[in-house]
# Entry
Amino acid sequence: MPRKSNVLLVLAVFIQVGVILTLYIEPIYLISRSRLNISGTVKERVSIVIASNRADNIRTLKERTDFSPIVPTSLVDRTDLNLSGSSEDIIKHLYLKALDQCDKVYCMILDDDIVFIYNELKDVLFDNLLSYNNDNNYIFDCSKRGFLRKNYTPNGNGSLCRIYSRYAVRALKQCIPTCNKPVDICLEECLEGFEEKRFLLAQHAGYKSSRWS
# Structure
């Protein structure tokens, strides 16, 4: 009987602690968060580049997504549709053009065939990127579930949503033009020495990307 009483006592203590956290700690957290300049911080530190060669795909992605106050930039204009060379040469040219538009601390490159799983893009970026990781040796795959405290080995596959630090952008711009392999292998080799973090922000929408079509 005493043992059962001890269990009930411990359970009661846990319930009281939960009530206290709900009534006092959570409101304090919400108040402090409301004072954060989330929109301004993300706007100042993150560039967004949509990897597409069709204006209508870019417009569709904008309509599906709350990019405010971040203004995404199109990767390829219509004059680039007449590029010559192999498909791999064209892909590398397009990716380098995307990297040329990265002018902030972090650069997020998106395929145009994605759907975001959260409404508030800037809040997710702030919580999963800016407030925890400020190390320029990191890159981020934002299309895979992962743990921000764990490091993963970068690879060139599944590039639906990638975030590069300015150091990673610089490394890619120097390395890709000298790489004679397919672009996914080049990305993996050019990012050697960087650690990858993962958090799930976007998934495949189920239709074909126009990036390379």
